């Protein structure tokens, strides 16, 4: 299987990543809502626990849509995808350290980590759009950390909205449509 074929399968199975981004965006918005109306600890817990559920929930949504929910065994991206998934939990100590210094840095720190984690998605999916998502989250995370360091939930609301908008964008992209058209 060539790299291009492997990327094509990733785009086809995961619908350009739109479903996963919609799930992630929903979790970020839920976390921001918890952080806004229930408390800081509930907001943090919602994102940490919810974040661990992004992939299983994405698979569930794909199955509910009658779509395949995993790559074929011979796809070499099967080895890359789990490595990318573990980047965020491995960075939780850095996010925690930032939040211990200033709890308002929780979402901005998470945004920077998640943004950096999206950079390899450019290769995984073969879609340049993930570089844009990475840049937006990285830039917004740094900007919020510097300019609004005491606004706890703002980064959660912003990231949730960005991820949902991205889901629509990639779901309607030429690459995603071509992948869907090519799927069985």
Describe it for me?
Helix 5 (77-90) packs antiparallel against helix 7 (106-118). It is built from 11 helices and no strands. The relative contact order is 0.19. It has one domain (3-69, 80-182). It is mainly α. 78% of the residues lie in helices and 0% in strands. The two termini are 17 Å apart.
Explain the layout of strands and helices:
Layout: H1 3-13, H2 18-37, H3 40-52, H4 54-64, H5 77-90, H6 92-101, H7 106-118, H8 121-125, H9 129-147, H10 154-171, H11 174-182
Helix pairs in contact: 1-11, 2-3, 2-4, 2-10, 5-7, 6-7, 7-9, 7-10, 9-10
List the helices and strands in order: HHHHHHHHHHH
Q: Termini distance?
A: 17 Å
Q: If you compute it from the alpha carbons, what radius of gyration comes out, rounded to the nearest whole angstrom?
A: 16 Å
Percent of residues in beta strands:
under 5%
Number of helices: 11
Tell me the overall shape: elongated
Amount of helix: over 70%
Low-confidence stretches: none
Mean pLDDT: 93
Q: Major β-sheet, in short?
A: none
From the helix content, strand content and strand pairing, which structural class follows?
mainly alpha
Provide the number of structural domains.
1
- Number of E-state strands: 0
